[in-house]
Amino acid sequence: MYKATEYPTGRNLDRRETVSSFRKRLESAMADVGINQSGLARAIGVDRSTLSQLLSRSADRLPRADTVAAMAVALQVSTDWLLGLAEEPGQGAAILRESIEIARPDTFAGSDKLLEQWHTDAVGYKVRYVPSSLPDLVKTDAVLALEYATYQAKSTEEAKSSIQNRLALSRIPEMEMEICLSWQVLRTFARGQGVWDEFPKSVRLEQLEYMASLLSELYPRVRLFLFDGRKVYAVPYTVFGPRRAAIFLGQMYFVFNTREHIRTLSDHFDSLVRAAKVQAHEMPNYIRSLMAECEEV
User: Fold this and answer.
1) Which residues have a Cβ under 8 Å from the Cβ of 48 and sit 6 or more positions away?
2) What are the residue ranges of CATH 1.10.260.40 in the chain?
3) Parallel, antiparallel, or unpaired: how do β-strands 126-130 and 176-182 relate?
4) Residues of CATH 3.30.870.10 domain(s) within the chain?
5) The CATH number of domain 100-296 is 3.30.870.10
6) Mean pLDDT across the stretch 202-229?
7) How far apart are CA 141 and CA 39, in angstroms?
8) Whole-model pTM above 0.85?
9) What 3-state class would DSSP assign to 135?
10) Measured between alpha carbons, how far is 112 from 115 in angstroms, rounded to an integer?
11) Residue 151: CB partners within 8 Å, gap ≥ 6?
12) Average pLDDT, stretch 258-270?
């Protein structure tokens, strides 16, 4: 248990003030990275009840030093900031690896394994995803079979296996995912235009029905928003909570590990959500309206 804390200003605070400051900063950091109590408890290896006690307004104690350190690593802030000894939340070089990487999997199967690992690492945090076309998570086997029929780098079965693994992760209670997609992409698919012009209507209708049902089932843990691609723009990228963000470049990923870069992409994702033409709770009905359009084409 910590005693009265000496701040850089030279002012001594009693235990209640120190505990109150710690609790507020912990709550702020959790909100900042989009992690809930269950997710943080899992990340630092404590019971959720223990974390709940620390966050309680009636709390009168601080956690052990090793627990504070684990929290700092999970939330990508410094222990000094959590304890009120520093005004800036950034970590030192010993804790935060300030780097940008290019991830080049040897094979496309390796790319799938890399994505699965990143999604697994992000359990307990919010994953935010901008796909290049329809989100893989909600594709039917028939669509995958048509997409990968002539694709040499990866087989249909490899694609199905990877998506099933990620779908299983999305059903974990601690998992939370937001997806932003241009509504033009979805409407183009429904109408069988552009890259979808060789997809039979029956396959497109089956895909739309599956997508509507799955989004309804997974809501609110998985939320899809549609923005207007004529007003805002986004390349394919994923933000894996506070741990990393990856921009898909085609056969490789540009990976950011710093808090500042991850926050910048998260802010961009927020702008896509704010610009949403269709909100997540409206998606099943909206997709079924596209099915009616598809029937008429």
Assistant:
1) 37, 38, 41
2) 5-82
3) parallel
4) 100-296
5) yes
6) 96
7) 32
8) no
9) coil
10) 5
11) none
12) 88
Query: How many whole angstroms separate alpha carbon 121 and alpha carbon 43?
Result: 9
Task: Kindly give the pairing relationship between strand 253-256 and strand 100-103.
Answer: antiparallel
**Structure tokens belonging to residue 76:** 């990508």
Under DSSP, is residue 57 helix (H, G, I), strand (E, B) or coil?
A: coil
Q: What angle do CA 214, 202, 225 make, to 5 degrees?
A: 35
Q: Which pair of tokens denotes residue 169? A: 């992760």
Report which DSSP code applies to 13: E
Q: Which two tokens stand for residue 51?
A: 């974390």
Q: How far apart are CA 241 and CA 255, in angstroms?
A: 13
Joined tokens for residue 14:
């009693």
Distance CA 79, CA 46 (A): 17
User: What one-letter code names the amino acid at 204?
Assistant: R
* Burial (CB count within 10 angstroms: exposed 0-12, middle 13-18, buried 19+), residue 220: exposed
* Beta-sheet strands, E only, within 135-275: 176-182, 222-227, 237-240, 244-248, 253-256
Domain covering 5-82 in this structure, CATH number: 1.10.260.40
Distance CA 151, CA 212 (A): 27
For the stretch 71-109, pLDDT in tens is 888 888 878 788 877 666 665 433 344 456 777 765 555
Token pair listed for 240: 């894996």
